Amino acid sequence: MPRFNALGFGFLAPAMIVVTLFFLAPVILTVFFAFTNMSTSTGITGGEYLLTQSSLREVRARSVSEETVQKLESTVYAVDEAGLARLAAARDAATADELAALHGGAEFTSRREMERALKDLRENRIRSTRDRKTLADLFTTSVMDERFQTETEFRTALSAANISEPDQSELVEVAYTGWTWTTENMRLLFSLDSSWRYAANTVFYVVLTLSFNVGFGLFLAISTFYLPAPIANTFRTIWFLPRILPPVLYVLMWYWLTWDTGIISSFMGLFGVSPRNWMLDTATNAWVVIILINGFVGASLGMILFSSAIKTIPDSMLYASEVDGANRWQQIRFIILPQLRWPILFTSSYQTLSLLTSFEYILLATDGGPGGATEVWALAAYHTALNNYGGNLQYGLGAAYALVLVVIGIVTSALYLRFFNFKELVSKPRIEQ
Fold first, then answer.
1. pLDDT by residue (tens digit) across 109-123?
2. Which of 380, 395, 415, 422 has the greatest CB tally within 10 Å of its CB?
3. What percent of the chain has pLDDT above 90?
4. Which pLDDT score is estimated for 425?
5. pTM score of the predicted model
6. How far apart are alpha carbons 120 and 183 in whole angstroms?
7. How far from each other are the two terminal CA atoms of the chain, in whole angstroms?
8. Which of 292, 293, 271, 289 is CA-nearest to residue 281?
9. How far is the C-alpha of 97 from the C-alpha of 426, rounded, in Å?
């Protein structure tokens, strides 16, 4: 009968918290960001309302009247309460009172006219021309290049500029500098030629590297299985070094090997071959190096897993096969490989998900070069959201790239479970059924 064990649930609680914080929460945030236009320019919190000259180009593309556009482009200087208050704060109250008495409620279409109004002051004369120019700007009523913290403040300024209500709604949408909900990221993602290039690079990278990881890992595990234990352990330790080395140091070793001043060029120079960068000289060279860098790391993990699995095979099965006349290849094909279905499933699924989402070795080795030839999907997400040359980090578009990887990872895991017949692998032995 099923029982609820409060103590067991308590032991599981920390694991559930970790899963929520480090798995569910990032996925939820990725979905959230993917459907926003968040970027460096919008920020991740709220936004302000700001119309600039570049905004007018988008305004003209919308159903905004030409009269409204002309009003936005023109600057009116109004001697109103707001302007007088700014003058009192910048100069003094007496100057503001005298200007209000002379020109209160007046509007001027140019700064020169506003400067003349300030020049009319007698009791609080403003003698400096530079000061009059500066103070004249206090009375501008243009909404251009002025920041408004709330929509209400922005609409009030638009109403003061005699902008019609329908045009105000369009201007509010254009002027908002914060993030908004949008599906534009997904449309843009699949309309860019670069996205399809990243997808093709990712498929090429994952298929070749995964084949190397699993195939070479199996080869190392089986080869060392038939060696004496001291020699086998030595070889396994050597092949496991790429896994335990820091990625920066590991890639630096490949630099020493492939640079134009590296080991390969120095050796080839003995035969009259000109020095060249064997990592970045061509796209083919870059892919070969990347696959080898990631391949040796993945193969070392596969070697350890497969070696441990092979050691669990009963010796009686191998001895019996030798009595029946089986050679080494027949032992591998009919005894060892069938027993490795579960380790191969785990290694393949783990390595596939890891290769889909990891990019640190590519970033350190080629950074997607030469000319974007080795830019994979995950690296494109990183460059888009966190590190690009343009300076405007597009968090929403980068999250959309990442969301596609999440979906592909889930689908790939389901296919692996189906292909390897997961239910049969975890079912009870037939003798117990």
1. 788 888 888 888 888
2. 380
3. 26
4. 62
5. 0.77
6. 57
7. 19
8. 289
9. 89
